[in-house]
Amino acid sequence: MSKYFTIVLFLFTTNNNGFVGKFSYTERSKLAWSDFRGRPEMSSTFDASVNTGITYQWAYGKDKGDIELNYQVDSFCYPSLSWVKRGQMSDHLLMHEQLHFDISELHARIMRKRLKEYKAGQNIRRDLNKMYKLVERMRINMQERYDEETDHSRNKVNQEKWERKIKTLMWYYRDYIK
Fold first, then answer.
1. Distance between CA atoms of 51 and 83, rounded to whole angstroms?
2. Phi, psi (5° rounding) for residue 18?
3. Which phi and psi angles does 53 have, rounded to 5°?
4. Considering the entire predicted model, what is its pTM?
5. Bridge partners of residue 52, in order along the sequence
């Protein structure tokens, strides 16, 4: 029975290639084409797709009557869900995909800022879930707007505008790096 459990646990912690299922922005902030391990969607009009997101965990306790909130917010890349079509690997396209990862990290920083400023009340769970949903909606909207305005990297002028915009926003939220 324990041998079976160990094998099942191993299958859930790696993908078919034996690679870890995700890595955080803190672990490695720069993408490489080797991070795109998923099977390309050949019917897609895109040449590549990076899968990123943010997660958060929290707990609280009382210290001398005051509520103390502890939290952890991370942004991740999921290589097995990220892909690139054969023959399409270029520095320009990789930079476009990198900005998607940066946008997720930007929103992780926004979430950290909001959590730091949060004054715990009676409905902590509801408040934090509402906060996360709002930040996640903002992240998804920005990801979609980025792809629309850059035409998925094809509009080089707008691509450069977005690169400057995200660089500025990352600098603005620099105090909320994990």
1. 9
2. 85, 10
3. -175, 180
4. 0.87
5. 77
